[in-house]
Amino acid sequence: MELNSTQVLPVDQAKAWAALNDVELLRSAIPGCETITATGENEYEVHVTAAVGPVKARFKGKLRLADIVPPVSYTLHFEGQGGAAGHGKGQAAIRLEAQGAAGTLLHYTAKASVGGRLAQVGSRLVDMAAQKMAGEFFAAFSARLVERYGVPVPAAAAARPGVLARLLAWLRGLFGAGTGEGPAR
After folding, report:
1. Which of 37, 70, 72, 134 has the highest count of CB atoms within 10 angstroms of its CB?
2. How far apart are CA 66 and CA 93, in angstroms?
3. Is residue 184, in this structure, part of any structural domain at all?
C-alpha cells in the first residue's frame, strides 16, 4: 500500500517542525493514542487503541526517525503488533515546504504492509478507515496549533484532510485508535 498527499498547516515552517517533533502535542492529536515514550535517540514506543472494520485492538508500536534534515524533512519508520488483530510495518517520508510567513505545506509518501486479521479486512476498508482517522488527526493537530500559536485554521486545511492526515489515520488504523475496547488477545 502506498499513500501520497499534502496538508496545509496554519503556521510557519519552524513552528510546524517543532509541532511535528513534539511528542506530547502528537499524542494529544492522534486519536486513540495512549502513550508515546522515547526509548532512544529519535526512537519511540507507542500504544494506540484502534478499530479497522471488525478488527479492534490495542496496538504496541515502534517508531524511528531517520534522514532528519531540520526543519525540512525526515523519514518515519514504523512497525506495530496488535496481538490477534495483526501487525503492520512501513515507512513515511515527510517534507515541509514554507508557504509564506504563516503557512507550511506538508508533503508525505507512505508505504506499508499489514498482516494477520488486518490483511483479511481488505485494503479498501483499511484505506477508508485510514482516511477517516487522518481527518480526525489533522483536525485535532490544527486545533493544537491554534491553541499553541493563536493562529486561525485556514478553511482549506479544515475542510480537506491531506496525505499526512490520511497516513496518520492509516497508521492509527494499523496500530489502534479510540474504540474504548480492551486489547485483542
Report:
1. 134
2. 10
3. no
